[in-house]
Write a structure and sequence with these properties.
Blueprint lengths: L5 H11 L5 H7 L3 H7 L6 E5 L2 H18 L9 E5 L6 E2 L5 H6 L9 E2 L6 H13 L5 E5 L17 E5 L20 E5 L5 H7 L5 E7 L2 H4 L7 H8 L13 E6 L11 H16 L7 E3 L8 H9 L31
Length: 338
């Protein structure tokens, strides 16, 4: 390593620093030469999973490094995993047994992370996103509440976004430019799918996945994708139609509530969801895959696999393709109660 030219070290660091920062920190401790050589690449892949102090330490360290390296070197974060669920306080989880069963990101103690009236905590998330947005290419974000930064900050180079959130007020401003012009893959977990907003803000989207759908109200505008067929057949330019570049749509409903615990409402809502999914995509314009019901999503694992070049959650068996089935009734793998 001592004899390798700096240009070759730069190529090695670009390929090696893809684990959230651990390798970069280890290499920087070897000696002074490697420390200086890897400084521009130390933050190209960052994984933040912890409390507000940890996020604030990252912000301070990143800003210090950026100040020392500029203007000769631009410090860039290209891939970011940010779990903001622990940046918020805790309240008692007072929802139904169904949502208690579905909790897969809560700790072993009772209760779940939820927002508290503190402006400092959500601002830490916004500060991180604002700081890294110019060069970010891949983002996985988990926040338990509405995150205004995701709908107000532009990510000109972002190619892949996975977001898990309970709400998103995503309304394009009149006359505004798309926030995600380079976005190709979008994975939405749990929160409502504002297709009209994503269609405007991500005009080049090719892959869309919606996971852990819980009710029709959260995905009812998925049928909007069918309008793409009219546009394509009429020969109108792609730029005039949302999702005109879409190549694959993946939908995964949430877990079905057991009948023995159900009061009737959740179970009826779930069966209505399955029927809606199946019937609304009966004549798909693009390949549509409706997956078996799922209980959880391994956000960090999927993000790491994508960094390593694996298809991860985007690799789906053809047995789940909607086009393989002619029946108007959902197949057995979607109706475990039958």
């Amino acid at each position: 390593m001592e004899t390798l030219p700096v240009e070759l070290l730069a190529e090695i660091f670009t390929l090696a620093f893809t684990d959230g920062g651990h390798t970069a920190c280890s290499v920087s401790l070897v000696n002074r030469r490697l420390y200086e050589a890897c400084r521009p690449f130390r933050f190209q892949t960052v994984a933040l999973d912890g409390s507000t102090p940890k996020v604030e330490r990252f912000l301070a360290t990143f800003e210090k490094e950026r100040t020392e390296l500029e203007p000769s070197t631009t410090l860039k974060v290209r891939q970011l995993y940010l779990d903001a669920s622990r940046l918020y306080g805790r309240i008692d989880f007072a929802s139904s047994w169904y949502h208690t069963l579905l909790r897969n990101d809560a700790s072993e103690e009772e209760g779940e992370f939820a927002p508290q009236p503190c402006d400092k905590q959500p601002s830490a998330v916004a500060s991180v996103l604002d700081m890294v947005s110019p060069h970010l290419e891949m983002l996985a974000l988990h926040t338990p509440i509405f995150c205004s930064a995701i709908e107000s900050i532009s990510f000109p180079r972002l190619r892949e976004l996975t977001i898990r959130c309970s709400a998103l007020n995503f309304t394009p401003a009149e006359g505004s430019a798309p926030l995600y012009p380079a976005l190709k893959r979008l994975h939405i977990i749990e929160f409502p799918v504002a297709l009209h907003a994503w269609g405007f803000n991500a005009p080049n989207l090719t892959h869309l996945r919606v996971s852990l759908c819980r009710s029709i109200s959260r995905i009812e505008n998925l049928a909007t994708l069918q309008c793409t067929s009219i546009t394509r057949r009429s020969g109108r330019p792609k730029s005039t139609s949302p999702f005109s570049c879409l190549e694959k749509l993946i939908i995964q409903p949430d877990v079905c509530p057991p009948r023995r615990w159900d009061n009737g409402f959740d179970f009826a809502a779930h069966t209505a969801l399955i029927d809606f999914l199946w019937q609304s995509q009966a004549q798909p314009v693009v390949p549509v895959y409706i997956l078996p019901q799922g209980r959880s999503v391994a956000l960090r694992k999927d993000w790491q696999c994508r960094l390593e070049g694996d298809e991860s959650c985007w690799e789906i068996s053809e047995s789940y393709a909607r086009s393989r089935y002619e029946s108007v009734d959902p197949p057995a793998y979607l109706t475990p109660w039958e």
